[in-house]
């Protein structure tokens, strides 16, 4: 079988994914139910919540424009279809995994007009992702004797508490809706900006 069934009942080909089968609601639904770190966190922590954190870091720490913020929010959107593998697992699987991941990354960037923004702001988005990772490592995962080389020298942000009651008690549907609302808001701002340029 070379296709998956989405939460909306669409069938998405793994070999030839079509933009028409990929939409924001599907992405938000899937990401809000996929746990990061293969479930090793001290509470459920989804890719949707992570993506919202990366977007907030990109906004507060790097002052990215609306295009960069939308790209930051959607940086892991492909995981809605290929799942979130831990980095060591990705390295173990190797080229086949990266080929599949890249295939869906390309389709999603094309579908949401993110190619330019993802390239322009790639460095800042990557750094925001690493800061989020360092924050998650410090607040959500058990202590470990072995440091993570990927976040060597990266400082967690101090302005978020991922173990606050508000975060702990938020249901997955709220993270799903928050992801959709943020994406819709950023997309609307993008369209307004494009219209202003066209005048």
Can you walk through the features of this model?
- The chain has helices at residues 24-33, 47-60, 66-73, 79-82, 87-93, 95-111, 115-120, 122-140, 165-168, 172-198, and strands at 3-5, 11-13.
- The chain is 58% helix and 3% strand.
- It is mainly alpha-helical.
- The chain contains 10 helices and 2 strands, in the order ββαααααααααα.
- It is globular.
- It starts with a strand and ends with a helix.
- It has a single domain (11-198), classed as Hypothetical protein af1432.
Features:
199 residues; mainly alpha; Hypothetical protein af1432; globular
Q: What global shape is seen? A: globular
Strand ordering within the main sheet? 1-2
The CATH homologous superfamily is called Hypothetical protein af1432
Low-confidence stretches: none
Q: What is the CATH class designation?
A: Mainly Alpha
How many separate structural domains? 1
Average pLDDT works out at 95
CATH topology: Hypothetical protein af1432
Write a brief structural summary:
The protein has helices at residues 24-33, 47-60, 66-73, 79-82, 87-93, 95-111, 115-120, 122-140, 165-168, 172-198; strands at residues 3-5, 11-13. It is mainly alpha-helical.
Strand and helix map with partners:
Elements: E1 3-5, E2 11-13, H1 24-33, H2 47-60, H3 66-73, H4 79-82, H5 87-93, H6 95-111, H7 115-120, H8 122-140, H9 165-168, H10 172-198
Antiparallel strand pairs: 1-2
Helix pairs in contact: 1-10, 2-3, 2-8, 2-10, 3-10
């Amino acid at each position: 079988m070379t296709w998956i069934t989405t939460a909306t009942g669409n069938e998405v080909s793994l070999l030839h994914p079509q933009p028409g089968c990929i939409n924001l609601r599907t992405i938000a639904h899937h990401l809000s139910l996929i746990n990061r770190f293969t479930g090793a966190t001290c509470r459920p922590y989804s890719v949707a919540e992570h993506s919202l954190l990366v977007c907030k870091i990109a906004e507060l720490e790097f002052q990215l424009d609306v295009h960069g913020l939308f790209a930051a929010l959607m940086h892991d959107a492909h995981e809605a279809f290929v799942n979130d593998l831990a980095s060591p697992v990705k390295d173990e699987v190797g080229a086949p995994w990266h080929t599949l991941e890249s295939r869906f990354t390309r389709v999603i960037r094309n579908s949401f007009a993110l190619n330019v923004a993802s390239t322009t702001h790639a460095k800042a988005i990557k750094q925001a992702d690493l800061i989020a990772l360092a924050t998650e490592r410090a607040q959500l995962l058990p202590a470990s004797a072995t440091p993570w080389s990927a976040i060597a020298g990266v400082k967690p942000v101090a302005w978020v508490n991922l173990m606050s009651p508000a975060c702990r008690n938020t249901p997955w549907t709220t993270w799903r809706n928050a992801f959709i609302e943020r994406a819709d808001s950023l997309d609307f701002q993008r369209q307004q900006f494009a219209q202003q340029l066209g005048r």
